[in-house]
Amino acid sequence: FFSFSLLFIFLYYLLPSLTSLRNNVALLFHSFICFCLSSSILFLETYYITNRYQSFRKVLFILSQIRIMKRSHQTVNRSLSQ
Q: In this structure, are residues 44 and 4 in contact, taking their beta carbons and an 8 Å threshold?
């Protein structure tokens, strides 16, 4: 995802120099389109990353709960064996 936004930033700086700067309206329109595309891709990236982070936190929470359950089980076994 991040490479796509870098590509759009590259196009934003490259294409206006390729088109001879005779038409300011076309230049403005092109920059607006590139800005919209890059901002939407950045939004999608951040949404995807936060979703991945939340699922990662859920996995960590489940693992910590399993660890706590194991510890409590071990302490119960120790107390029973004594």
A: no
